[in-house]
Specification:
InterPro entries: ATL_DNA_repair, MethylDNA_cys_MeTrfase_DNA-bd, MethylDNA_cys_MeTrfase_DNAb, WH-like_DNA-bd_sf. This protein is mainly alpha-helical. It is built from four helices and four strands, in the order αβααβαββ. The longest helix is centred in the first third of the chain and has 14 residues, at 3-16.
Length: 101
Amino acid sequence: MADDEFAELVLTLVERIPPGRVMSYGAIAEYLGRGGPRQVGAVMSHYGGGVPWHRVVAANGRLVPGHEVEALERHHAEGTPLRGDKIDMRAAPWWPDETQS
């Protein structure tokens, strides 16, 4: 798969993550069946400014490095479940096949 195609798949999926929910880099790669967390991170780093980038987090709930303050503000505004300054990865993860609630 060409890099542009992979990037488009990642960005399209990130656009679908509902407010107040998140996906990890690895979960995105798993859902797409291509790449891995680092490849998803590279796409987000280069092209993610136009999508809800703050909804993509590390598997441990850590926010986007270098953008933690803005990401935390956005998560507070959306009502994302938090545990301190990280996402509550028991309550906030979303999988595309879920019904949005």
